[in-house]
Write a structure and sequence with these properties.
By secondary structure, this protein is α/β, with parallel strands linked by helices. It is 37% helix and 19% strand. It is globular, with a radius of gyration of 19 Å.
Length: 293
């Protein structure tokens, strides 16, 4: 039977990759977006999905019109563009609560949420995301909930305001001094294709899962940011005429308050389901840089 998925955040980095994968699997996909959303990532897919603009069509109308089996929420506001507190909370918490409320009222079987591994009280983004997961847990007696806490995902079509796309832009654009921290903090860099595989395998096996599920999403391999950055720089120096490594000024800026030196992550529950990461960070970097040409 064809699965009907309601996907939010489809115009974003993760959402666009999920959308491509779901279409390839012949799922029926309904996407929610705003009329003002920049849809450059998915314009070529518009004829393959059903689209609702949330600022025109309310949630109630959408759920009345469609028989939805799975809701997947990838909407988030990272607070990178000096958005107001209200904007951050509306995107990361209130939107999800409204979605959850309608999903329960309309007997949706599964609600899949995209969360973060950042500590709860690190910033407004992490707090508002954690608050939504609290509410999801509370109501998981009424709807199956799968909450994904994702580490540092990367890949093509990412938001240019995020660290890696910004950094690659600085390298390519020839910025004289690229000021960075010392880079000894470690991150679990997970390629976007491996993240999409997580969603797919959990969707395939959701009938075997309990009402409440929370998964840490990462490779469980931790790499110093400096090593990751230098790998990108080395690859770019080989394929361009630019001098890059000499422009990297490690230690020029301080860490942010509360910055995590190594995240806590346990992906054993995903491994037990049969998922495993396929893309090493070296391969992921090569794949990413190929898309820039």
């Amino acid at each position: 039977m064809q699965k009907t998925i309601l996907l939010t955040g489809a115009t974003g980095f993760l959402g666009s990759h999920l959308l491509e994968s779901f279409i390839k699997q012949d799922f029926k996909v309904i996407i929610l977006k705003r009329t003002s959303s920049d849809s450059w990532r998915i314009n070529h897919l518009f004829d393959k999905v059903k689209i609702y603009d949330t600022d025109i069509d309310g949630f109630k109308k959408i759920f009345e019109n469609e028989k939805i089996e799975i809701v997947i929420n990838t909407v988030c506001n990272y607070e990178r563009a000096s958005e107001s507190l209200i904007d951050v909370v509306n995107a990361n918490l209130i939107f999800g609560l409204n979605l959850l409320d309608e999903a329960i009222k309309n007997n949706v079987k599964t609600f899949i949420n995209t969360d973060s591994l950042l500590p709860r009280n690190l910033n407004n983004y992490s707090l508002s995301k954690a608050q939504l997961s609290d509410w999801l847990y509370k109501y998981s007696n009424q709807i199956q909930v799968i909450n994904f806490k994702i580490e540092h995902m990367y890949g093509p079509r990412d938001d240019k305001k995020k660290f890696l796309p910004w950094l690659i832009g600085e390298m390519i654009n020839g910025t004289n001094d690229i000021n960075l921290t010392s880079g000894i903090q470690k991150r679990d860099f997970i390629y976007i294709d491996d993240v999409v595989d997580v969603y797919n395998i959990v969707i395939q096996k959701k009938l075997t899962l309990p009402k409440w599920n929370q998964f840490d999403v990462g490779t469980n391999l931790f790499t110093e940011v400096k090593e990751f950055v230098l790998t990108i720089a080395n690859n770019l120096e080989k394929t361009t005429s630019k001098v890059i490594i000499a422009r990297l000024k490690f230690g020029a800026i301080s860490y942010r308050q509360g910055d995590i030196m190594i995240p806590e992550l346990d992906n054993s529950k995903l491994l037990d389901l049969g998922w495993y990461p396929k893309i090493t960070f070296n391969k992921g970097i090569i794949n990413l840089l190929k898309t820039l040409k």
